[in-house]
Specification:
The structure is a homodimer. Chain A is of the alpha/beta class. Chain A has two domains: 2-123 and 297-327, Quinone Oxidoreductase, Chain A, domain 1; 127-268, NAD(P)-binding Rossmann-like Domain (Rossmann fold, 3-Layer(aba) Sandwich), CATH 3.40.50. Chain A is built from twelve helices and 17 strands. In chain A, strand 9, helix 5 (155-166) and strand 10 form a beta-alpha-beta unit. Chain A starts with a strand and ends with a strand. Strand 14 (248-250) of chain A pairs antiparallel with strand 14 (248-250) of chain B, so a sheet runs across the interface.
């Protein structure tokens, strides 16, 4: 079968210049394999960093872009149990999902509830898990507690708001421009503020001075310090992204006098240390919530694999409100 | 009795301009009090920050400078047990020790072994405790493990080298100028390097690539990041000072991909949470080690209280090798 994949043979500073659509013939299946037609696969910031070489773990070249997604089974090799042609499945993490088709080890495909929205389910593996774990792994939050984040209009940011609400936490959400405020309020953010020098005063006003013990930063630079200044004594700041491209800046005063702890979160690292049982528990919950429509992300635009360069360029544009998805021919 | 104290009535950016020697008459003693003639009291960076207002805890004004020291009992009020005139004692922490005499609650005076060097003992409360706790509170180090610090030629730095050796740890010591290397080697530093951009390569070479799980930073700015880059995955960086006056800079890559934790250490905070038993245990060990000459700091110069402005100016000079002490008339 004639298929298409978005492949890169080298890395470079302009990610849309290194990736291109490459036709290929789907191979004959070995026992235990499945051929899957990809329905949808998102472009995450980490995928773009793999194209530029800025990520902490890089696949050997040539590589196919994309690290998560949803597909429908087209053909099964010998010796595959528990799956059927036509079934909707979650693709294995890190499998080069920007393609019309891919061949996978059938044991790594997770059947999804029929009727679930494939474009929403395509974003399950990376962002909701990141948001969920950052809310649970660092600070023991109780219902009523406040958590604060910047880039609240990102994929992770939107899931974090929804998950926090479901757990009874309240959120202070920081965005970088006025135009992003309404969408974050729509997703259920309790407080939404535009970043700026007097941020900690405005946060104090909005929360009535309640302690904020967890802060989540995906920007770096002085935005990290502005967030740190909003946290209670003994609080924890977790960085998971580098949107500004600048290193994190935090005053020694915050560390020494305010007993701040700064940590990082990386989902790939969690996968290395989490037990199968912990992974199943997390993804079981998230799958159910997403299939029921309780976890949703906004989608800015979709692109076929053929237009991968436009898609990657769009994913880096500053003013979008929602994810860019690569979609199959289906 | 005519006495002298180094007092400040306001705070300001130039610390030697706000402090001055002020004569006073020692008061009649109330029951439970002791009059102590101060033998020696150091000028610590935290003392200078109290004069400028840059510290996390500021005494009400007017205040007498100095937060630790050693004295000899001159007179005892009624109802004091267990102390004798002529005895050498450790002064209470934070008691305004830059003076020829001070009146203290006798229960807060700790008798010191006769024969111990009063100038060395004067530095017991702050720096050795800071060094000792930073070696034990954050990372569970085992004999043979490496620890790394910058400003290795500071008071805390020197104690840290000595305490690390006594516990079987090896030290990578970073200084800011070539001229400071020899003194740090003399104190027992295993590796001594001058700070610079390729620091992590030189550290790797010197340690044979052994993991460094604890890094101790008193500089801030890019020096923090240079130290962070030398640490093993999952390592901890502890900041306790702000020598550069710049906020700490640490790349998001260090947090996210290298699982770095950054914390702060403040002795005043430890005092708030440590039990009496923990405090006694720590200071018991340090007193014995210091009285035996196993914990020593270099002394750059001593000044009488009358010359407090020169002393404070000298404490801020860049190229000194050792502490500045304020000494009594004795």
């Amino acid at each position: 079968m004639q298929a298409l994949k978005a492949q890169y043979e080298q890395r470079g500073p302009v990610p849309q210049d290194v990736i291109k659509p490459v036709p290929f013939d789907t191979p004959a299946l070995a026992p235990g394999q499945a051929l899957v037609a990809v329905l949808a696969a998102p472009i995450n910031p980490s995928d773009v960093l793999m194209l530029t070489g800025g990520y902490g773990m890089l696949p050997p070249l040539p590589a196919v872009g994309g690290s998560e997604g949803v597909g429908r089974i087209v053909e099964l090799g010998a010796d595959v149990a528990g799956l059927a042609v036509g079934q909707m499945v979650l693709l294995p993490a890190g499998s080069g999902t920007w393609a019309t088709h891919l061949v996978a080890d059938a044991r790594r495909l997770v059947p999804l509830p029929e009727g679930a929205d494939p474009q929403q389910m395509a974003m399950l593996t990376v962002n909701p898990a990141t948001a969920s774990l950052m809310l649970s792994e660092f600070v023991d939050l109780k219902p009523g507690d406040w958590v604060m984040q910047n880039v609240a209009n990102s994929g992770v940011g939107g899931y974090l708001i929804q998950l926090a609400r479901q757990r009874g936490f309240r959120t202070v959400n920081v965005v970088r421009r006025e135009g992003a405020v309404a969408a974050v309020q729509d997703q259920g953010g309790d407080v939404v503020l535009v970043d700026g020098d007097d941020l900690h005063h405005r946060v104090k006003q909005a929360t009535g001075g309640a302690p904020v013990r967890l802060g989540i930063d995906a920007v770096g630079g002085m935005a990290t310090e502005r967030l740190a200044r909003c946290l209670a004594e003994g609080g924890t700041l977790v960085n998971y992204g580098l949107m500004s491209g600048e290193p994190c800046v935090v005053s020694a005063q915050s560390f020494v006098f305010n007993d701040l702890t700064v940590r990082g979160f990386w989902l790939a690292k969690w996968f290395r240390v989490a037990t199968r049982e912990q992974q199943r528990a997390l993804y079981g919950q998230l799958t159910q919530a997403m299939a029921r429509g309780q976890l949703k992300a906004r989608i800015h635009a979709t692109y076929p694999v053929q237009r991968i360069q436009e898609a990657v360029a769009a994913a880096q544009a500053g003013e979008r409100d929602g994810k860019i998805l690569v979609v199959g021919q289906g």
